[in-house]
């Protein structure tokens, strides 16, 4: 059955009402072409299908920037940095950067248990698990290529590993499936974590922590970082 907890994903139930997110959006960069903002965990990137799920990142931003539009998304449960286009020309230029993989992204995550390797590379193809949407699955027959670098950044007080995740590709749920595939699911993940890992955190411990790219208009490099609130 589709999981109703994330109405941003295909197959999420339209009648699921997302709890209101009290945390405000943080603006880390603003100019005439684009914004870089921090999305709180628990806030939709775009409106949900239910009439009561209209509150979201872009609806809040449009109160101050009426012409702003979404270029990419984070799952509702994921916090962190997002790029917002201020006008159609900027949207097209930024979309090309994403398509050409010219935007460098880092995520911070806390995963279950102690990861033995100090770094690694996961190259496992992903496809939609159609009977169980929005879940994704490893699929070596017709899955799309998915690649993730990871770096071990220490162990927290509870004995779980802090990882820096650097996706090469941008598949749906890629970081969640890849970490689970090596036996270390992200804490608080309702889709791929076993019960102990799911119960170990009251939110998904996944945060988009860094964006680096060349500004499509000024040609200057933007390099914005924001550590996760659970990283210390």
From TrEMBL:
Lineage: Bacteria, Pseudomonadati, Pseudomonadota, Gammaproteobacteria, Cellvibrionales
Listed name of the protein: Dual-specificity RNA pseudouridine synthase RluA
Domain annotation Pseudouridine synthase RsuA/RluA-like: ranges: 33-181
Database matches in InterPro entries: PsdUridine_synth_RluA-like_CS, PsdUridine_synth_RsuA/RluA, RluA_PseudoU_synthase
Keyword Ligase on entry: no
Family to which the UniProt record says this protein belongs: Belongs to the pseudouridine synthase RluA family.
Enzymatic class: isomerase
Chain's role: Dual specificity enzyme that catalyzes the synthesis of pseudouridine from uracil-746 in 23S ribosomal RNA and from uracil-32 in the anticodon stem and loop of transfer RNAs.
Entries under Pfam families matching the protein: PseudoU_synth_2
EC number: 5.4.99.28, 5.4.99.29
UniProtKB keywords: Isomerase, tRNA processing
Catalytic activity: uridine(746) in 23S rRNA = pseudouridine(746) in 23S rRNA; uridine(32) in tRNA = pseudouridine(32) in tRNA
């Amino acid at each position: 059955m589709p999981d109703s907890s994330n109405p941003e994903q295909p197959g999420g139930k339209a009648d699921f009402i997302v709890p209101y997110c009290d945390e405000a959006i943080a603006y880390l960069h603003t100019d005439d072409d684009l914004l870089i903002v921090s999305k709180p965990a628990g806030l939709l990137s775009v409106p949900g299908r239910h009439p009561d799920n209209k509150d979201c990142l872009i609806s809040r931003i449009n109160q101050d920037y009426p012409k702003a539009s979404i270029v990419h998304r984070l799952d509702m449960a994921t916090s962190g940095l997002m790029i917002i286009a201020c006008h159609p020309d900027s949207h097209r230029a930024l979309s090309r950067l994403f398509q050409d993989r010219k935007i460098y992204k880092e995520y911070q995550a806390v995963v279950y248990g102690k990861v033995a390797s100090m770094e690694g590379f996961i190259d496992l193809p992903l496809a939609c698990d159609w009977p169980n949407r929005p879940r994704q699955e490893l699929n070596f027959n017709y899955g799309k290529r998915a690649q993730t670098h990871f770096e071990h950044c220490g162990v927290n007080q509870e004995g779980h590993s802090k990882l820096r995740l650097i996706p090469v590709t941008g598949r749906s749920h890629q970081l969640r499936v890849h970490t689970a595939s090596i036996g270390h699911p992200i804490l608080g993940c309702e889709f791929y974590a076993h019960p102990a890992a799911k119960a170990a955190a009251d939110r998904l411990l996944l945060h988009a922590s860094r964006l680096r790219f060349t500004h499509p208009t000024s040609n200057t490099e933007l390099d914005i970082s924001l550590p996760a609130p659970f990283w210390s």
